[in-house]
Amino acid sequence: MKMAFAAALAATFGSSWAIAQEPPAAAAGGVIAYPPAFFAEMGPSTALDMVQRLPGFSFDKGAVVRGLAGASGNVLIDGEPPVAKNDTLEEILKRIPYGSVARIDVIRGGAPGVDMQGRTVIANVVRRQGAGARGAVSFSTQPIYDGRVLNALRAEGQWRWDGKLLELSMVNGKGPDDALGDGPRVRYGPTGVPLIVSEVDADGQGLREWVTGAFETPVARGRLRLNGAYMKTTSTSEIYDRLSVPGAAREYEYVTPHRLQAELGGRFVRAFGATSLEALAFQQWNNLDTKARFESAAVDRLFHSDKKVTESVGRLNLRRRMSDSLSLEAGVEGAFNALDSKTTLMVNGLRVVVPAADVRVEEARAEPYVVGTWRPTSTLTFEGALRQEVSKITSTGDVNLEKSLSFTKPRLAVTWAPGAANQWRGRLEREVSQLNFDDFVATSSVASTGVLIAGNPDLSPQQAWVIEGAYERRFWTSGAAVLTVRHYELSDVIDRAPIRVGAVVADGPANIGDGTKDEAAVSLSAPLDRVWLKRATIKGQATWRRSQVVDPTTGDDREISGLHPVDWEVHFTQDLPGLKANWGVDVFGGFRESNYRLTEIETKKYETFATVFAEVKPRPDLILRVEIQNVTGRDVQRIREVYAGPRDRAALAYTDVRNLEWGRCLFVRLRKTFG
Q1: Coil, strand, or helix at residue 93?
Q2: What is the pTM for the complete model shown?
Q3: Residue 17 in domain
Q4: Domain CATH code at residue 18
Q5: Is the N-terminal amide bond of 246 cis, ω within 30° of 0?
Q6: For the chain, how are helix, strand and coil distributed in percent, rounded to 5?
Q7: 503 CB contacts (<8 Å, ≥6 apart)?
Q8: What distance in Å separates the CA atoms of residue 407 and residue 430, rounded to the nearest whole number?
């Protein structure tokens, strides 16, 4: 079949498209430079395609946290992290055309004058500075196995002139929720007798209407960048549950989260000789209105949550390059965050008390810091940092409290590279997590399960002492293998626990004490020319996790809720230059996650998801991509072990098993580039 497909492509487009792969520049001071020619055989369209194919590098788009520190992911653009949050790093990289990239540097272990964002390995996308205009328009269509056809339109452009840069982009399109599908559901009693037997028909989708823009210009002998985003996302999920046991009946669930996000950000950078000044300002608005309804013969539940979040951040940073081997920086970041949340729950027409249903939470936070990077020899690098986080949190409404928090966060990272092919990295750091405003208020899963998940504004951030070691081995022209191990000593672990408000006892987030977590991660990127396939590469990564905390309900040891014991993925690509095409396979491994609540243990198991794709370039400015998604026919299984009361003193009432299969789908995208 593959040979027939290749012959058809050759007959259509000829066989003259061939570009030799250019090896990366030799590592200098822990930095490896990859020119565009290195990626040419892989047929990338955007900077994201290039970043995802970097040997020995695993892309991280960043975390959803308040403030800018730790939120920007592990990719810099022209040496700086983006001043954006809702407009994710993944979306920003998609808007940078392949032709606009001068090179991508992989910085391993730190380098003087480079902001590593608290990471041991980062990538820096360096853009071309020449004047001109570039852009792209793409249209995609996705026929779903259940008969739906979801379309999307995307357009982006950038213009450079007289040292200025203007970027604009627009996305309007629908996408599916592949965690929903069709399949059986069985509820077993404690003796194994079926209590409920049914067939589930579930589907969900979302609509994105996004507009983003940015403008850069020289100002006051420095450079100013302004960016903004307006993002409207509407989602729906609908679940029909048709029962055959104990009798013909129907259960129905309908959930509609509507999210409106907007943000404005700015960065000003100016150099004064060996010293550089950076000033940042950022403002975001995030409104989420969620309605969820559950109907059955005996129960009618209606849940409504209206959350409004605002965030204002400012940062000032001074960086001085003392010498070719030493750089120092100091700065301070300040933020003010606010959450207004109103939650209501109606059961059979009667209002139910929900803990922390109507609250306003405010957080004022400041973090001064100093960072130093020293390279005493060509093979040895030290990075040290000290941060002091202070904050004040107040809550009014259903929960009235006020508390002040202070954390000292030291960090020491060491990198030793005895040769160009080998590098050892170590890190010792105290990490302090950001409090998640979503934990402060009730959530909508109460509609379908009947389990009340309360909010808890009285939380302290989770802390951890982390020790990490990594070994990286470079081989052949562009092969890399990395082994990383980490150990976390945790305190104030945030997990599920009983929340008591008056006479009401509900499940919710809480600090449950100390714990541990261990991780081992491996990644491999290798060209297959020397093995059995020309112009082919394989890239994969896997992470194993083990954790332990004391369950606040039972007093027994268990794993941390929501933590995946194993995650893995493998990506194979092969260039077919004679056909002006490339093809490949992306495989995302199955995983499991369990949540331990007051009266139940919920476990979700996701099977492996695989996609086969092919891209054809009949012209340099035209790309056709075809994907067969989910060739494995992935199932998503939800297992609810529900107890008659708190798990420490009540018997198991029933086990509910729902197994939904998401079918195979086709995805087709046509992309036209300009400039």
Answers
A1: helix
A2: 0.88
A3: yes
A4: 2.170.130.10
A5: yes
A6: 5, 65, 30
A7: none
A8: 9
Could you tell me if residue 311 is left (phi over 0), alpha (psi between -120 and 50 degrees) or otherwise beta?
beta
**Is residue 123 included in any domain, yes or no?**
yes
Q: Nearest Cα to 257, choosing from 218, 304, 294? A: 304
Query: What residue has token string 């200025």?
Result: 164
For the cut 70, the answer to whether the pLDDT of residue 1 exceeds it is no
| CA-based end-to-end distance of the chain | 36
- Among residues 667, 541, 564, the alpha carbon closest in space to that of 178 is found at 667
Q: Return the structure tokens found at 574.
A: 């092969």
Phi, psi dihedral angles at 288 (to 5 degrees): -130, 120
**% of the chain residues with pLDDT over 70:** 91
Per DSSP, the residues of 527-539 read: E-TTTT-TTEEEE
**Which residue, among 20, 116, 49, 34, has the nearest Cα to 474 in the 3D structure?**
34
Closest of 423, 402, 405 to residue 414, by C-alpha: 423
- CB-based contact 207:174 (threshold 8 Å): yes
Domain that holds residue 78: 1-128
Q: Encoding tokens for residue 17?
A: 């498209």
Strands 121-127 and 75-77: parallel
Residue whose entry in the numeric block shows the structure tokens 């309605």: 291
State the maximum Cα–Cα separation within the chain, in Å, rounded to a whole number.
Answer: 80
In the beta sheet, which residues pair with residue 237? 204, 255
Span 635-665, pLDDT tens digits: 999 999 999 999 999 999 999 999 999 999 9
Q: Label residue 2 by pLDDT band (50, 70, 90).
A: very low
For residue 380, give the nearest of 414, 412, 411, 419 by alpha carbon.
414
Tokens matching residue 303 = 């849940």
pLDDT for 52: 86
- Answer whether residue 86 is part of any domain: yes
Number of domains, the chain: 1
Residue 116 in domain: yes
Q: How high is the pLDDT of residue 440?
A: 80
